[in-house]
């Protein structure tokens, strides 16, 4: 597991209130296939917001989603990291 995810997992494990609303934010290259893959990570597409960079080369994708456990959050990040060029914030 990525070192960043290990640290995030440790922080999330300390939280006692699950399920919990979690705010995800990713930056993806402005390529239809990659954007669709990022969108598919979320269960409620109506909650996704988008913002393009000034030069339109990248798209910021944000979504608030109820997550049942810390492991579900880590799993979503692992899937996002598998998409080439995606950055998690």
Note down, in words, how this protein is organized.
- The relative contact order is 0.28.
- Helix 1 packs antiparallel against helix 3 (70-81).
- The protein is built from 3 helices and 4 strands, in the order αβαββαβ.
- The chain has helices at 3-14, 32-39, 70-81; strands spanning 20-29, 48-52, 58-67, 87-88.
- The chain has 89 residues and is an alpha+beta fold.
- It has one domain: Alpha-Beta Plaits (2-Layer Sandwich), CATH 3.30.70.120.
- Strand 2 (48-52) and strand 3 form a beta hairpin.
- The two termini are 17 Å apart.
- Strands 2-3-1-4 form a 4-stranded antiparallel β-sheet, with helices on one face.
- Helix content is 36%, strand content 30%.
Topology diagram in text:
Blueprint: H1 3-14, E1 20-29, H2 32-39, E2 48-52, E3 58-67, H3 70-81, E4 87-88
Antiparallel strand pairs: 1-3, 1-4, 2-3
Helix pairs in contact: 1-3
Keyphrases for this structure?
4 strands, Alpha-Beta Plaits, 36% helix, 3 helices
Entry summary:
The protein is of the alpha+beta class and 89 residues long. It is 36% helix and 30% strand. It has a single domain (3-88), classed as 2-Layer Sandwich (Alpha-Beta Plaits), CATH 3.30.70.
Tally of separate domains: 1
CATH top level is Alpha Beta
Element pattern in H and E:
HEHEEHE
Distance between the termini: 17 Å
Q: What strand line-up does the widest sheet have?
A: 2-3-1-4
Broad structural category: alpha+beta
Give a count of the beta strands, DSSP E runs of length 2 or more: 4
Shape: globular
Largest sheet report: 4 strands, antiparallel
* Mean pLDDT across residues: 94
Estimated radius of gyration = 13 Å
Instruction: Kindly state the percentage of residues in helix.
Output: 25-40%
CATH topology: Alpha-Beta Plaits
Q: Total helix count? A: 3
Give unreliable regions as ranges: none
Strand percentage: 25-35%
